[in-house]
Amino acid sequence: MKLNKIIAGCIIATQISGCATIQWSKADTARQLAFTSLLAVDWVQTRNNASDGWQGIKELNPILGSKPDTTTVDLLIFGAMLGHFGVSLILPPKYRSHWQMFWIGVETCAVVNNELVRRR
Description:
Elements: H1 2-17, H2 26-51, H3 70-90, H4 93-119
């Protein structure tokens, strides 16, 4: 049931990110959707680790702590999703793409690392 809420939250956040109209380009939308999608994957991976009791692994995000529970994961990652969109929306276009690309890179590394750790 909680996974359904996560998926619903991701869909809502993704749809919101496609609705911005304040100096917002198609490229901005594409980058925001890429970030949101990667964060959603990271969210599910991290939540699965928390559900499994962090068996021999730990979370690397210092904000979450080394072994957060699923509620902490849900609240902080959903908050990060909304917060990232908010910052993206208010940044001038000249800086927005740098912000989005930086966090796409961070999330890509997180998703890849999560998968590598999970396979060990």
